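S1.2 Input.
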Amino acid sequence: MNKFKTDINGRLPITLNDLRWIEGGISNALKAVFDAYGEDKFIISGCEFTINSGYRECSEGFIYWEGEILYTPGGSAFFDESNIPVFELEVTYDPAGLKLFKNGVQNDTYEIRRAKYYSVNYGSTSGKLIALSAKRLSDLMADLIVGVPSFLSEIYQFIVSVPTLGSDVYPLITGVSYYGDDVRALAEQSSVLAKKQQGAWTVVTPSNQFTFAGINSADQLKHRLDEFGNLQLIGAITGAEDPDGYEMCQIPNCTPPSERLMRVFVNNNGLRVFLPCWLETDGKIRIKQTDGHVYPGGIAYLNETIPLD
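S1.3 Output.
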């Protein structure tokens, strides 16, 4: 990283170019670190989302934005079939930085660069970071080690195939030697690491009178397991009025020990309501008719993370 040396005696002269050198050195170092994750915009920390009626509340946090780290105070943003929450670079100025230059002109010099959280129309997301589907630093770090479990597994399979390797030494990395038993123990931990990886998004298969009619393929309801084993659901599905069985879909190989309560946002020709729905112990997602909730028909939107333990 570039440094501005200030430990030299003799009354060092300082100019604006020196400040630019310092700022550039820090910016270049940060960019080099975060660009390694392969995304130009993502959530570093914070930015936890909660549901409040038709809004998505976002806590404060930090966003990586094309070589910069931006603070976001979070806030509230509307979410429905037409509007989606996003982050966008917002530039303002601190009045304390208004300076009178020698040429007699006043200029703002304290620039505040933050990530603004608000809603836009689905067709206006270009150049912005879609908040609810934004990747997180923890996700990207996990993606980088996806290959580690398979690499260790290959070593392990080689080790166990030759029983006499336990006391032998192998230079797996130049200049570093490992005993076979050490490699065996390390490889056995690969199964633990493998469980920490996110699954791929899979579109659900609609049940009964639910379909994907009128929904773009990119917005269809899908599911995956996150790195902590939680079930993530995001997207939309269309249902008929008061459908048979009230079952939307079934998540394969999903057997939580008890029912999990969720909320689904429904839009039917301008009638917008939130209804409770359940993930049942057999993996089925349904609105329960026995609880007196009537499904009005229309498009249902889900955005949930559900613990399965």
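S1.4 Remarks. The chain has three domains: 37-140, 147-194, 202-306.
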